[in-house]
Write a structure and sequence with these properties.
The complex is a heterodimer of chains A (451) and B (404). Chain A has 451 residues and is α+β, with helices and mostly antiparallel strands. Chain A contains eight helices and 22 strands. In chain A, a hairpin with a 4-residue loop joins strand 5 and strand 6. In chain A, helix 1 packs parallel to helix 2. Chain A is globular, with a radius of gyration of 24 Å. Chain A starts with 5 loop residues before the first helix and ends with a strand. With 404 residues, chain B is α+β, with helices and mostly antiparallel strands. Helix content of chain B is 18%, strand content 41%. The longest helix of chain B is centred in the middle third of the chain and has 15 residues. The mean pLDDT of chain B is 85. Classes of the chains: A alpha+beta (451), B alpha+beta (404). At the A-B interface, strand 2, strand 3, helix 2, helix 3 and strand 15 of A face strand 2, strand 3, helix 2 and strand 17 of B.
């Protein structure tokens, strides 16, 4: 991917020096390549690129935003003048100085994928295990190269050069009477090796997905009604993420107070920029604020919220790097980055939790989920098992799970000690951003099989 | 675009270049004040090509980049059979009002002034005005160009319900905004958040019914197995009309440059036609149906119905609203497709709306889950009418709906 032309940056900086209001400029460039594999065959390779420049002028009462996909001296000048003029006429006052990212500097890089798409496909093909008759594997690997620069009128200058990787795997089993499949998503940043799970190679992950797909062909219906369930990291991570949406201060679902008195000792839900190798790694946000950890809930208390510069100024709180945008043609909103649920005390090992939960239902993987309202969930696991004596026994077909957020949290009586992360794309007002969600195993009570 | 295509012709068997130029104005209102203004100018190109039996697709800021990346994409892909592009030149149908509106030259400052004139008193709302120029060319003689204007308005009522409306081209007017404003100011009904489970009727008003209908029919009407099957009750017929004057989804041509048409999808309950893109049509030795859409310039083309009109069980709107027990939807918040089969028409929605008993609105309810079958539960629909100034939107009445 090409470097940003220095003339764009110089021009933007000369305008920022003269800006009458707080103003920031974002220059972004994205290049996506999607590789579609069926078993070991590379079926299709497609992708594209987009680059652009945006200018935003903000006051406590008003935000003026303009962007172009064709930046050159005339268009850059034009959009600067437009946002200044609008901020003059529609916005009064300036943002409090304490809320502004001033003099923030940094250069962040995690881009060690230098292989061609053909070489990357070969890397994937090598990791597909031999497949039995009736089983097959479909994979889509999305390689996202992102380059971003945020500069502002307060002398900040931040630069990011990163590669995000997102791998979707479908393992399927077909015989005369059945067609079953099991899916999983893996993600990482920087290098292909970061796609692999901590304890399993990619080959082992694929083998386990194929085994699950085959087991689902012999699955029975699970018992329905209110049940004791153990949710795996993908489902507890999804719950953490959906709860996180109620902490987005610019959203019409903003309602953290609903969880203010929830009694969940030892459990925290946090959001941070993630480590360098996770999918959606965000060392700084699209408003030029360096990422810091945001504790949404700690032991039943609501701590911090997800802010943009504007909402932080309004509520007199500190912005912690959660103002994100899909690309330069989108205005930043308060968004999650890497959200996870964890225990503050010593957690359970998987073995001990299964040993202690005979008769419970173990929910693995996520087919999807939705927050119906600010206090009600519906989740769809990918597979359900009955827990026997310390192990997973009968495989059951996946059915819906639902419950009130407060009840799910308050009914948690055991939390695993390990946190695992999974990649996802979070959608809000037609903008998709890469995020990670993570969690530990949790044991709680939910209604099984209503929807 | 033409020059880039000419330079590539020696390297490819088939090539298509698509251009989209968007001017988008967006404002956010809060207590009658503008709190955010966004002005975007985005130009993008995408290209599809075939080299021998390999297919490529790519998108970029310039036609040159899009085409060169599409060629690289084709080189890396596996062979794919029977892929083609529409063969032109075509004579495109005249679709009224496409570029004649004065809004096609509206500036952002005019737009702000226009919103001020309408004196919107909503608490919260957004207005989007999109001017889009689209061009498609291919090496089989397709050359198509259009200019469109679309305005989307969302305004929140004090009772928690939402008024939303999409105006196309000549239908955009201050009168419409004022009517919406009046409706918001008059909304003072009491609110009830929870509803006990029951089985009843669901009335989906025009602007929402069209969204629901296109969404649920898009997969079913791509499968040849649906042909000659009875999918609706036997008195109802369905026409897909891409050339309907004033229709939101009307256009002279679709996302591949094939002329849009008027076709019967269902006659007296029986499925008679499905939607076909140019490749599928070539395989079946027939014509493409003009149903290809592009979600954005970065997306590969997909199939979707245009303007849908049901016939056979129409009644007037007042009669339709005379519900024994049920809900009139004001907002579709989510589709829950997981574990539900769109091909069979199974629908699971989360809606906000008004609970109705004996023909009278009782209270506003939110987050109601409604489960029904699109095909077997659709019993009646309103006659074609105008809402605000937008023509041809029908209300649907679904019966035997489970509200959870």
């Amino acid at each position: 991917m090409k470097e940003f032309p220095p003339s764009w940056i110089a021009l933007a900086e000369s305008f920022l020096e003269k800006a009458r209001h707080y103003t920031d400029v974002r220059i972004t460039s994205h290049k996506n390549v999607d590789l579609f594999l069926h078993n070991k065959e590379l079926k299709q390779c497609k992708g594209g690129s987009y680059s652009g420049l945006s200018v935003r002028s903000i006051t406590p009462a008003f935000t003026a935003f303009a962007c172009t996909s064709n930046p050159h001296s005339q268009t850059i000048k034009r959009i600067f003048n437009k946002v200044e003029r609008r901020a003059d006429s529609l916005g009064k006052g300036d943002l409090p100085v304490s809320a502004l990212p001033a003099d923030v500097k940094g250069e962040f890089k995690n881009n060690d994928v230098h292989s061609s798409p053909g070489e990357i496909a070969a890397w994937l093909q090598e990791r597909i295990p031999p497949l039995d008759v009736g089983t097959h594997v479909d994979m889509v690997l999305r390689i996202i190269e992102e380059r971003k620069m945020v500069i502002n009128s307060e002398n900040s200058r931040l630069y990011l050069d990163v590669i995000y990787l997102y791998l979707h795997i479908d393992a399927a089993y077909r015989d005369k009477n059945h067609f079953t499949y099991f899916s999983s998503d893996l993600g990482g940043s920087g290098s292909l090796e970061n796609l692999e799970e901590k304890d399993h190679s990619l080959t082992e992950t694929i083998e386990s997905l194929v085994r699950c797909a085959r087991r689902l062909s012999e699955a029975s219906s699970p018992p329905e009604g209110m049940r004791e369930v153990i949710l795996d990291s993908k489902l507890s991570g999804l719950i953490a993420h959906e709860i996180g949406h109620t902490f987005e201060a610019d959203s019409n679902t903003f309602s953290p107070h609903l969880l203010n008195d929830v009694s969940i000792p030892n459990i925290s839900i946090k959001d941070d920029g993630g480590s360098k190798d996770v999918f959606g790694w965000t060392p700084f946000d699209d408003e030029g604020v360096k990422s810091r950890e945001i504790t949404l809930i700690k032991e039943g208390e609501v701590y911090q919220k997800l802010h943009t510069l504007q909402t932080a100024a309004k509520m007199n709180e500190e912005p912690l790097g959660s103002g994100r945008a899909e690309n330069s043609s989108a205005c930043p909103m308060s968004r999650m980055r890497n959200t996870y649920l964890m225990t503050e005390s010593e957690g359970w090992s998987r073995e001990a939790l299964l040993e202690d939960s005979p008769g419970a239902l173990f929910m693995e993987g996520r087919e999807g989920g939705i927050k119906v309202s600010s206090d009600h969930f519906i989740l769809y696991p990918a597979v359900i098992y009955r827990v026997g004596k310390g192990d997973l026994e009968n495989t059951c077909i996946p059915v819906s799970l639902d419950g009130k957020v407060k009840e799910i949290l308050e009914n948690i009586d055991a939390v695993g000690k390990d946190v695992q992360f999974f990649p996802s794309y979070c959608q809000k007002r037609n903008q998709g951003v890469p995020v990670s969600m993570g969690g530990s195993l949790i044991r709680t009570k939910l209604r099984v099989g209503r929807y | 675009m033409e020059k880039v295509m000419e330079k590539t012709l020696s390297k490819v068997d088939l090539i298509e270049i698509y251009q989209q130029l968007d001017y988008l104005y967006h404002v956010e209102l809060h207590s009658n004040r503008i709190i955010t203004s966004e002005e975007k100018k985005i130009v993008g190109f995408s290209s599809r090509c075939r080299i021998k039996d390999k297919i490529g697709f790519s998108y970029a800021n310039t036609a040159h980049e899009a085409v060169s990346e599409a060629l690289k994409s084709a080189e890396k892909s596996s062979p794919s059979v029977d892929w083609t592009l529409p063969r032109g030149p075509f004579e495109y149908p005249h679709v009224g009002g496409l570029a004649s509106s004065s809004l096609t030259s509206l500036t952002f400052d005019d737009f702000i002034h226009y919103i001020g004139e309408a004196n919107l008193t909503s608490h919260v709302g957004t207005l989007d005005l999109l001017r889009r120029k689209t061009r498609i060319i291919n090496n089989l003689g397709v050359k198509a160009q259009k200019l469109e204007t679309l305005m989307e308005v969302y305004l929140n009522c004090k009772d928690g319900s939402q008024v939303e409306h999409t105006m196309s081209r000549d239908c955009i007017s201050i009168d419409t905004l004022e009517q919406m404003n009046k409706r918001i100011s008059g909304a003072k009904r009491k609110r009830k958040a929870h509803l006990a489970e029951f089985k009843g009727s669901l009335l989906v008003p025009g602007r929402l019914s069209h969204h629901l209908c296109r969404n649920y029919l898009r997969t079913a009407f791509q499968i040849p197995a649906i042909l000659d099957k009875y999918v609706l009750i036997q008195d109802i017929s369905l026409v897909d009309d891409g050339t309907l004057p004033g229709g939101i989804f009307s256009s002279p041509f679709d996302g591949e440059g094939t002329p849009c048409k008027k076709r019967e999808l269902i006659i007296e309950g029986k499925a008679t036609h499905i939607m076909l893109d140019s490749s599928q049509a070539a395989r079946q030795h027939t014509e493409a149906t003009g149903n290809v859409t592009r979600v954005s310039w970065q997306s590969s083309p997909t199939l979707i119905p245009n303007n849908l009109i049901f016939y056979g069980k129409e009644c007037n709107r007042e009669e339709l609203r005379n519900i024994n027990e049920g809900v009139i939807a004001t907002r579709l918040k989510a589709f829950l497709p997981i574990l539900f089969n769109r091909n069979l028409g199974e629908v699971f929605l989360i809606i906000d709306g008004f609970f109705v008993k004996d023909g009278h609105i009782k209270y506003f309810v939110d987050n109601v889950k409604a489960k029904f079958n699109f095909f077997t539960s659709l019993r009646k629909m309103s006659e074609l009418y105008q809402e605000y100034q937008q023509p041809y939107l029908q209300d649907f009445l679904f019966e035997n709906v489970e509200f959870l």
